[in-house]
Write a structure and sequence with these properties.
With 364 residues, this protein is mostly beta strands. The protein is built from 3 helices and 25 strands.
Length: 364
């Protein structure tokens, strides 16, 4: 979940542990008739591909940063994994769902509880901040071979299903707009045994309708699309260019000098909507908050080396993964790079590399 594959100059680029995730998605493409997918009504598995890049690899200095003790913390062992998360009641974001084995199994947090349940219906699942409604990419295709997305009543599981894109185009990484009115998905297209960037889709949640837009700008969508703070434009990285588009598929802005892409599993934009996250340089040893609108002066760079972030914790902190022992650890850091909280520990490197985590902001 939240992990995608993209292509640049014909070469597959895999982000985080996406190799296994993409193998699942490619093997789930419909063959013209409905088969026996993970829900019992999905497409037949037809094969797989394996490509991946290294997992997050912060510098030794970052890995050695002292870990402050947590107080009033609840420890939750995630079913089906060796990962343990740590939460406080006052946390502004919390884990909503996670996947293992590249999306083969997806666990969703039960409404109002600390328990996670296995679902075979979805590849990805992310609730809104109120915890009332979720956006989810379906594991099964329609009878006429459309990839589907559902708007789910989180407490009951009742859903409205949207036929979104005809195979071989499929949606990934659903994200809520800051105002809660729209959903956003990144679209990829299967070509042989890999996937290439295609564009993005916008979901009108109230009307339960969706539109997809093909984006032909070179490099656009190779990473993924994310919301800007105005809930009326979305962005994506194309090399060192930050491209922005409106809700009807039109490009509205191109910015340079804002850094380079970094994978964010949760919130690219700060709660105020003012700042997005990027690597300062392709070396990935520091984060540079940037103003997607190109109007203000963002905070100074954050000395935190990680290739896999959870995203903005609040306006003055960022959360992300760092190496820890033989595995990885999720931490919260302030704008000076100081660790202030531990959020999770993942002791098994291979297991972590094949997992995806979707956090959601908690409504005040």
């Amino acid at each position: 979940m939240g992990l995608i594959v993209a292509a640049s100059v014909g070469v597959a680029i895999v982000l985080g542990g996406a190799g296994a995730f993409v193998a699942v998605r490619l093997s789930q493409q419909p063959t013209g008739t409905t088969g026996s997918g993970p829900t019992g009504t999905g497409p037949t598995r037809t094969g797989s591909t394996s490509a991946r890049t290294p997992d997050p690899s912060p510098t030794p200095a970052t890995s050695a940063t002292a870990t402050p003790p947590a107080t009033d913390t609840t420890r939750i062992s995630l079913p089906g994994t060796t990962v343990v998360i740590q939460e406080n009641d006052a946390d502004p974001i919390k884990l909503a769902s996670y996947s293992v084995e590249g999306g083969e199994r997806v666990y969703v947090r039960q409404a109002g509880s600390d328990r996670f349940s296995l679902t075979k219906s979805y590849f990805e699942y992310v609730p809104n901040p109120e915890g009332t409604t979720a956006l989810a990419t379906n594991a099964d295709y329609s009878d006429d071979n459309y990839a589907q997305l559902s708007i789910v009543e989180h407490g009951t599981g009742r859903r409205k299903t949207i036929k979104l894109s005809a195979a071989p185009v499929y949606p990934t990484t659903p994200r809520w707009s800051p105002d809660g009115r729209y959903g956003l998905v990144t679209l990829f297209k299967v070509e042989g045994k890999t996937s290439v960037a295609y564009g993005y889709g916008i979901i009108d949640v109230q009307r339960a309708t969706g539109k997809i837009f093909q984006v032909k700008d070179k490099g656009a969508g190779d990473f993924y699309f994310f919301w800007h703070g105005d809930s009326r434009t979305v962005g994506t990285w194309a090399g060192d260019r930050l491209l922005s588009y409106d809700l009807e598929g039109a490009k509205v802005q191109t910015l340079t000098g804002k850094g380079s892409a970094v994978w964010v599993e949760g919130y690219d934009v700060s709660p105020s909507g003012a700042y997005a996250l990027a690597h300062c340089t392709s070396a990935g040893v520091a984060l540079c908050p940037s103003d997607p609108a190109g109007r203000g002066t963002p905070p100074a760079s954050i000395p935190f080396a990680s290739t896999r972030l959870i995203g903005w914790w609040d306006e003055h902190h960022v959360a992300g993964w760092r190496t820890y022992g033989k595995g990885f650890q999720a931490v919260v850091v302030d704008l000076n790079g100081k660790v202030t909280r531990v959020l999770a520990t993942a002791p098994n490197t291979k297991e972590f590399g094949d997992m995806g985590f979707r956090y959601t902001r908690v409504a005040p």
